[in-house]
Design goal:
Number of helices: 9
Structural class: alpha/beta
Number of strands: 25
Length: 535
């Protein structure tokens, strides 16, 4: 079995033409003749809890109610027994309480305003404490409110669907940029030009994202079957190779139409997703052809929209694509150099991975002109673990905050202008299950919650500078935030050991969730998990 298994439930027949409502909270499937000891047989009461907030995010000062739904007969004296556990080493229990049933909702505890992540576990019990339902879990995050900055000044992007709930979730966690790749493929050539000369536009989602304060990176990408000499399906059947006679002129028409139509709402565009992959380079596409697509897109888009910002190359570290394609693109035909970085390593040290990437990609650009700034348009973890039961593999939830904060900070320090994390979605068959940063119920995973804290502190301030106050310790200091009259530094141990670090006078130390920490003798222990100095 894969770490996660998709279960399809089909219901209905000719006798249910008026529709059917199905409540499915969980499933247990076992490939054996007899049930294992962990098998949970049906119980007299079914329980479902819902937290009607985008991403299950609660901001400072907000109250949140959980909706209660039960099925079955509740006996006299039944109650909901609730336990709240904090995401912390050892998962300490924070609170235990009861909710009298029947009930429609109850309030989550605020833990005196502390920030972080919690998991609610609840079950229905009777007056004699007999358990009547399977346990039900709800995860939520209490976070500081995101910064309000102009979206194109932001570093923090993600891949989301252009639906109201996902847009609201992005705003709640400080994401200000969205890339229209496989979560929202609306601008790709076969989706935009459904038949030769017939274009379809998706204005509702684009307009809603723009009005909600998100900057959109559109994709000039893919090719329909009718501009290809043969079928090269790629994935989802839309990445053919535009190599038929007249295909490049048709590419010009596509680029002109979409960049003109979305002008003012989408002004940033990237040319082709991962052209080094099997769906371009491995399917007959060549570096020379990509260079032609890049150059033509640059000229056509700039003419259609003088404010267009074109990102290109879309390299991957050390896979051979960059040296092969650079002679055909050159820095003259793009405004930003894009690349992808999927890496399960937790970055740090004097030669952090983004520093090496900058050298690699700047050196190759410099052979053909003035290097353009770097844009990491897709990346993250290969597997993102879940806190729900049962665990489904991927990076442990306790490591995710360290991973993402150190990933983002070291990229910012290397001069990367923006990073679009992959991927903030759950629905349907879009993208890889293992890379999803939200849970099955759209609760944010710790990787997103910890990133939201970082974004609330430093987004738009500028690139940090690294120092090493103690051997084995990274200290990244950002330029002074004039608006909030403070300077933020991010501290962690990059060698894995614990180190005592002197805290400068007038400095408040925050944990990775943004909670003030108490100090002893004006020192703090630097661990692999980041902490913040606020001066």
């Amino acid at each position: 079995f894969l770490p996660s298994t998709l279960l399809h439930v089909r219901c209905g027949s000719e006798h249910t033409k008026d529709g059917l409502t199905l409540w499915l909270d969980g499933a247990m499937v076992e490939e054996k003749a007899e049930a294992s000891p962990e098998y949970a047989a049906a119980q007299p009461v079914e329980l479902s809890l819902q937290l009607p907030r985008s991403g299950h995010v609660v901001h400072d000062g907000e109250k949140a109610n959980v909706r209660v739904l039960t099925a079955g007969t509740l006996p006299q004296g039944a109650r909901l027994r609730c336990t709240a556990t904090r995401l912390w080493a050892g998962n300490p229990v924070e609170s235990v309480w009861n909710v009298k049933l029947p009930a429609t909702h109850f309030a989550l505890p605020d833990f005196k305003g502390r920030r972080g992540m919690w998991k609610l576990s609840a079950e229905v019990v009777d007056a004699a404490n007999k358990v009547l339902s399977p346990p039900y879990e709800v995860i939520w995050a209490r976070l500081t409110r995101p910064r309000e900055i102009y979206p194109t000044k932001s570093f923090f992007g993600a891949h989301i669907q252009l639906s109201p709930d996902y847009i609201a979730m992005a705003r709640a966690i400080g994401v200000r940029r969205v890339r229209l790749h496989d979560t929202s493929m609306i601008a790709k050539w076969p989706i935009a030009e459904v038949e030769p000369g017939i274009f379809r536009y998706y204005d509702e989602g684009v307009t809603h994202a723009k009005k909600s304060g998100l900057a959109i990176l559109g994709m000039l990408d893919g090719a329909p079957r009718w501009v290809s000499t043969k079928s090269r399906e790629g994935y989802w059947g839309i990445w053919h190779i535009p190599d038929a006679p007249g295909a490049l002129e048709k590419w010009d028409t596509y680029v002109r139409n979409v960049t003109t139509h979305y002008r003012g709402r989408i002004d940033e565009w990237e040319v082709w997703n991962e052209p080094w992959g099997n769906w371009f380079d491995g399917a007959g596409g060549t570096p020379e052809l990509y260079g032609q697509l890049m150059q033509r897109a640059y000229r056509v888009a700039k003419k259609a929209n003088p404010k267009a910002f074109i990102i290109g190359v879309d390299a991957y570290p050390k896979n051979g694509w960059t040296p092969r394609v650079m002679p055909f693109v050159q820095p003259l035909f793009y405004d930003g150099f894009s690349y992808h970085e999927y890496n399960d390593a937790i970055f740090g040290g004097p030669e952090a991975i983004p520093v090496l990437r900058k050298k690699e990609f700047y050196d190759w650009q410099a052979k053909y002109g003035t290097p353009r700034p770097l844009w990491n348009t897709e990346g993250g973890l290969f597997g993102v673990g879940s806190w729900y039961t049962p665990a489904a593999g991927g990076m442990d939830v306790l490591l995710q905050p360290s991973y993402i904060v150190r990933y983002d900070v070291t990229h910012m320090a290397a001069g990367v202008r923006a990073f679009w994390l992959y991927a903030v979605h759950t629905d349907g068959a879009m993208g890889e299950i293992e890379t999803r940063t939200t849970e099955h119920d759209r609760a944010v995973k710790p990787i997103l919650a910890a990133r939201a804290v970082l974004a609330s502190l430093v987004d738009g301030v500028g690139a940090p500078t690294r120092s090493e106050p103690v051997k084995g310790v990274d200290l990244y200091t950002y330029p002074r935030d004039a608006k909030n009259k403070r300077t933020i530094s991010v501290l962690w141990s990059y060698d894995g050991a614990n180190h005592a670090v002197k805290v400068p006078r007038g400095t408040t130390v925050l944990d990775v969730w943004g909670n003030p920490m108490s100090l002893r003798a004006s020192t703090v222990t630097a661990t692999p998990e980041p902490k913040y100095f606020v001066r």
